[in-house]
Amino acid sequence: MHSEGDRRDDSAVDDLRRRAFELGLEVGEENHLESVGWVNSKLQEIREEADRVGVFEEVRRAYQKGKKLGVARRSGHTLTPQLGLVKDRSALSGSQSPRSEPKGPRLPKPPGFIERIPPVEGLRSTINVMMFASARPELKKDLNGLVAGVLDIQERLIDVGARDPPRRTFERSLQLLEEIGWIEDFALTSFDDTSAVVTLKSTIANALGRSAEPLCKPICSLLETMGRKAFGRSVKVVEVECVAQGKQACKFEVSLRGALSSR
Question: Across the chain, what does the average pLDDT equal?
């Protein structure tokens, strides 16, 4: 049995799993030795904390997931099969080495498409968020709702303005967001072949209250989808003013992403 001071604290356990995952990621990506130096010290520290609160297996799995993803990032391979681990005094990882699966062909990117981040970075972020939410049923439910809700909007945007001019496509997409309640009072204040400026009132910002920084990142993502469809190229959207900052409206600047902006 654990003492009063050693009883499980879910927030502390989440932090411990996050630290284990991030350490595993660095070990896998940088090919560090686990049995010597600072890596061994960190592993021992995490192991002792995990033992103390009785969550060694959870933390071990988090470390292994991070390590496998790190190896995949370093080699450019797909994720490796799950590996076993012996609970010993040397490290969380044991002595086994990952076996990389054969590298598959790289899929061609659609014309005009520029990645925001490499797919493996997106996978890493998704794993981190899912790990954090897994111990919190309400947060997990809300996270699933967020993903499903955004995907529903994205799917509806696919069918907007298929044969309309670019500006009309963008306007009809904004109307869709207004109809489903995400925004109101929108205005497309400028629009040309390479950029656009949008002002609107965001339901998200109204709900979250005051902030020193803009809060409408989900709106930015949806506007980028609209821009991709309207311009036929990947775009970047930056919220430069937000209702949460005390402004009259949220203001978004749309521009072609990356090297495409020089065309």
Answer: 81
Give percent helix, percent strand, percent coil of the chain, each to the nearest 5.
Answer: 55, 10, 35
> What six digits make up the tokens of 160?
């907007």
Domain 136-262 sits in CATH at 3.30.1380.20
64: Cα within 13 Å, side-chain hemisphere: 22
- Rounded Cα distance, 230 and 196, in Å: 11
Query: What is the predicted pLDDT for the residue at 25?
Result: 84
The values of phi and psi at residue 131, to 5°, are -65, -40
Task: From 186, 166, 167, select the one nearest 176 (Cα to Cα).
Answer: 186
Backbone angles phi, psi at 238, to 5 degrees: -120, 130
* pTM of structure: 0.59
**Domain extents in the chain:** 4-93+110-128, 136-262
The more confidently predicted of residues 172 and 67 is 172
Question: CA 234 → CA 142, 178, 263, distances in Å?
Answer: 29, 23, 13
What contacts 219, CB < 8 A, 6 or more positions away? 177, 182, 183, 200, 202, 204, 239, 250, 252
User: Model confidence over 6-32: pLDDT tens digits?
Assistant: 455 778 888 888 888 888 888 888 877
The pair phi, psi for residue 100, each rounded to 5°, is: -80, 140
The residues facing 235 across adjacent strands are 256
Residue of higher predicted confidence among 67 and 179: 179
What CA–CA distance (Å, rounded) separates 101 from 147?
29
